[in-house]
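User: Glucan biosynthesis protein D. Structure?
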Amino acid sequence: MKGWIGIIFFYLTFLFFFPLEGFSQPNFWEEIKTKARGLSNLPFREPRSRLPSWLEKLSYGQWEAIRFDANNSLWREEKLPFEIQFYHLGSIFRVPVTIFEVVHEQEKKIEFLEKSFFYGPSIEKKPIERDIGFAGFSVYSTDWQKKEYCMIAKFLGACFFQGLTCGQIPGITARTIAINTALAEGEEFPFFREFWLVKPKKEDSELELYSIVDSPSITQACRFIILSEGFSTVCKIDTQLFFRSSPKKIGIAPLSAMFEYGENGPKVLSDYRPQVHEADGLLIESATGDWTWSPLENPSRLVVKEIAKGQLLGFGLVQRNRLYDHYQDIHRSFQDMPSAWVQLNSGFLEDGEVELVEVPLKDDLNKNILLFWTPSKTPFAGQSLSFSYSVCWLKGEVPAEGKLGKVISARVDRTKTSQGKTAMLLSFKGELLEENAALGFNPVVHVLSGGELLYATVGWEAQEKTALLEVQIQENGREPLRVEGWLENTGKKLTERWYQELFK
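Assistant: Predicted structure:
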């Protein structure tokens, strides 16, 4: 009897210290949060690149030439509703993320296989003799029209991820968190340390992913539920943050985009393209049901704007201009890039605000716009915060905005600076405007700071079914110009609120 007790004790001890691969976990999300919490109690461990030198020395263009063989996609042979393709390490992507497949709550590490990739002719390839891991992965789903697989999500670099619908190209980028953005001490970039991909069933319409994000200030547990709905791709996110230290600022549900120039400012004369941007404005929905549109800017200096405070329902970066003729870029189809809308669920308190960061940009190779929600109170070391929200990547408008008239362009003329005058021309389109065109519109314009209103007048262009609001303001030159406006009839708002900040 004593012998059997000894054997059982030895076996249980072995399992405790050396758990078998695929050990069943009854509540996977709770296990991920527990692991992230435990990691936060340990000193931060800086990730180190252990790549062969020839991979580290690749240019970005050479790295792009390394392609994953779609025939080796995870779950392809079983013809499941989703499949996964992986990104190779190299060039700027030097830190591997460990990726597990989860089947019946049992995890198994996905090994790197050299034969799963095609290497471009410009690469002087050498043998890879060990498992180097992956830079990230993309999610493919069955196209509801063509019944073919198409990319709907991409997780690659730091804690960045993107979504899109079938037929679109990636544009706006999301992150799991932003830390110390636009502060003098520099931004901190958390990174995906591990991923768990839950194998879907044939009847599933959603894909479930888990991850742990790490950085000197935080660890973060994330659960992603991804579903494709034809004209939109939705990523439902639950996240719990554990703070090692107290960062000065955190950004929740951050979105970033590139905006070089558009209709609201001067174009680059040396560029043949009429407009260059991945989004042309930001949209906010308040708990009162009001909608605010603010055009994006490419400023001459770093600008941080407090856009909205109080209880909010959602915010996003939107690409409203969908005509190829307005971009004329055959390589980057800006008109086909998705808008991104964040629907807030829980954790976003009234004492927070939506903040917009705009960075000067001289080319279209980087993203210079960052939008996020930030709490008013700085988190402290040892604290834990939880948030739940969804990011929806869209082909068109945000459906919830309904029939309200929308700002389709906001042109600004500041050429009369010697006189201190600024002129603006706003174009509004929408069903409510068409329905009330015969009654006329009343313009409501408020100069919140930086000057005083000289006049505001509105006209109706019947052929284009567009309301045109012309505004002229006398600037005082002492502070940034902040202005808002909308159109109404008999006290009823017919359009969203237009809000704009202009800096010298």
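The first strand starts at residue 67 and ends at 68. The helical segments are 2-17, 28-40, 53-56, 60-64, 431-436.
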